[in-house]
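Handout, page 2. Input:
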Amino acid sequence: MKTFAGLHVHEIVQTYSDTLIRIAAQQTKNMPEAEDIVQEVFMTLMRQKKHFDNETHLKAWLIKVTFNKCKDYFKSSRVKKTVPITEEMTFIAKEEQMVLPEIFELNSNERVIVYLHYYEGYTTAEIADLLEMKVNTVGSKLRRIRMKLKNILEEGS
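Output:
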């Protein structure tokens, strides 16, 4: 059985599926597409000949490939108007579901940064590396996003 960073593929799927589905669902706003994208990510991993230094390197690679597959999804001809998925996202905690509509109001680049920072705990430097951006750019985008979300949440109160 194939291993990456000392983990069997089955362990990788068990460990990272939820995270990758959350990313893809936030990006596509379409649960079936999100699941398909994550499946494609794992198939890409199986074809991968790259050596991963450790589990952190593997996780970063999986996240980056997921974002890239989401970008490809929006470039594809199969993208159509979709039905909101908030009621389908039962795997997300109730507290998180309360802010999902506000997060979905952000553009996809903003959602990526919010997700990586608040849900995955990445620093601005790590996000910059993952998204191939400058650290200062990520920091300023994060500040603007916080203000935007604050305004959205205050308007809804």
